[in-house]
Design goal:
Elements: E1 3-9, E2 21-27, E3 56-57, E4 63-64, H1 80-91
Antiparallel strand pairs: 1-2, 3-4
């Protein structure tokens, strides 16, 4: 975190130490201009062949050719089971009813 310090002289009549400087901390603007380059891939990530518009996007985020489009073929690290479990748990929340007192 970068901080910008500005120094200003203190009037000698209002302060006992005439040679000291008052330090005011001014925060730098939070606007950071980072350019994020979006990599347009038109090649298979596994065999590096050109795929053009016929490339298959996997859930792991890469583009593959027709022979490497299946997760088993390109050793995909994406966890399909965890994603499926999360979707099912969000779609079917646990509903517990209040217990009924018996008379």
């Amino acid at each position: 975190m970068n901080k910008v310090f500005t120094f200003s002289k203190v009037d000698s009549s209002s302060s006992s130490s005439s040679s000291s400087a008052a330090v005011q901390e001014v925060a730098k603007p939070a606007v950071l201009e980072e350019v994020i380059k979006v990599k347009v891939t038109n090649r298979c990530f596994d065999c590096n062949t050109k795929v053009g518009v016929m490339g298959f996007k996997c859930r792991c985020g890469e583009t593959f050719c027709g022979s490497h489009r299946y997760p088993e073929e390109h050793k995909c690290e994406f966890d399909f089971k965890k994603t499926g479990r999360d979707l099912i748990s969000k779609a079917n929340p646990v509903v517990k009813a209040d217990k009924v007192d018996k008379i």
